[in-house]
Amino acid sequence: MNGTEGDAFYVPMSNATGIVRSPYEYPQYYLVAPWAYACLSAYMFFLILTGFPVNFLTLYVTIEHKKLRTPLNYILLNLAIADLFMVFGGFTTTMYTSLHGYFVFGRLGCNIEGFFATLGGEMGLWSLVVLAIERYLVVCKPISNFRFGENHALMGLAFTWFMACTCAVPPLVGWSRYIPEGMQCSCGVDYYTRAPGINNESFVIYMFVVHFFIPVVVIFFCYGRLVCTVKEAAALQQESETTQRAEREVTRMVIIMVIAFFIAWLPYASVAWYIFTHQGSEFGPVFMTVPAFFAKTSAVYNPCIYICMNKQFRNCMITTLCCGKNPFEEEEGASTTASKTEASSVSSSSVSPA
């Protein structure tokens, strides 16, 4: 084995030299230089500094503006809450442990940090699935006369929490476990070992199938059908400039959603799967650290993609930030008129751009 397995940890370095120590008790500067831990801590501070304000602003603006309390925005709000879970449950802890060079909070802290980080990430992922399904039902109308209402939104919220818990809770109760990973200052699911009695193999397979591949298939199917529906509607109204613009806007939004999702999570999922299927092979601490921490950036750009691209949300945010006045009111007023025309035109073709 090219790593050292201990009591609830796996350090990606052989202990042939005798320098490997528990990541719960000793600094891990033998893995990488101290400056690397300082850079990691600074990176987490940056994510906190950017992720907290934009997600908190989303919550605040929604509470302040009654017109934003719509069923669809409940799901968008849940996405912001998921990101805040990652900020408070994962980013702050990791920033502190990185400053010390090891996981100073012990096994209990590792379980707590791993749980909240996993819960937040999974809530975000399943919120995107619910958004995809909502867009598919509203735009493509596979069910005639369907209207996404408050009850559907609440069911969607309950679904995201349930699915997130089915991924985050099992490692706490004996099906797999949370251990320090990468540079040993943040915790995640144990992809590294086949420790007896905790059934790591079955949990990792379950997690990849249920909590990665299935969401990817659903998202691609829903948004694929959405793009096709928009194109069909635009083809029927070739002379309508607003419909053509609706096609471009929805297509752009879908491309950004898909690219952002894969940029954030595919590297981490790929590396985790490689480690799981090549247990005992040689890899360094940075091999897992880089994709794991890169995936955390989703807490920053998620609200930018799914909320800030929403015109109504954007206008309300500007009004809030400018103390009740929107300096772009006239421009937005003209845009609103065009949007109403667009909505009327597109509605006749069963299309509703996000």
TrEMBL record:
Its membrane topology: Multi-pass membrane protein
Ranges of Low complexity composition bias in the record: 334-354
PTM characteristics: Contains one covalently linked retinal chromophore.
Molecular-function GO term, any one: photoreceptor activity
Pfam families in UniProt: 7tm_1, Rhodopsin_N
Compartment(s) of residence: Membrane
Keyword list, A-Z: Chromophore, Disulfide bond, G-protein coupled receptor, Glycoprotein, Lipoprotein, Membrane, Metal-binding, Phosphoprotein, Photoreceptor protein, Receptor, Retinal protein, Sensory transduction, Transducer, Transmembrane, Transmembrane helix, Vision, Zinc
Annotated G-protein coupled receptors family 1 profile domain residues: 54-306
Annotated TM spans: 35-63, 75-95, 115-133, 154-173, 203-223, 254-276, 288-309
Residues carrying N6-(retinylidene)lysine: 296
A GO cellular component entry from the record: membrane
Disulfide bond sites: 110-187
Gene3D superfamilies: Rhodopsin 7-helix transmembrane proteins
Record: glycosylation sites: 2, 15
InterPro entries in UniProt: GPCR_opsins, GPCR_Rhodpsn, GPCR_Rhodpsn_7TM, Opsin, Retinal_BS, Rhodopsin, Rhodopsin_N
Site entry: Plays an important role in the conformation switch to the active conformation: 113
A GO biological process held by the record: phototransduction
Residues that bind Zn(2+): 201, 279
Region (Disordered): 332-354
PANTHER family assigned: OPSIN
Similarity field: Belongs to the G-protein coupled receptor 1 family. Opsin subfamily.
The name this protein goes by in its record: Rhodopsin
Organism: Triplophysa scleroptera
Source lineage: Eukaryota, Metazoa, Chordata, Craniata, Vertebrata
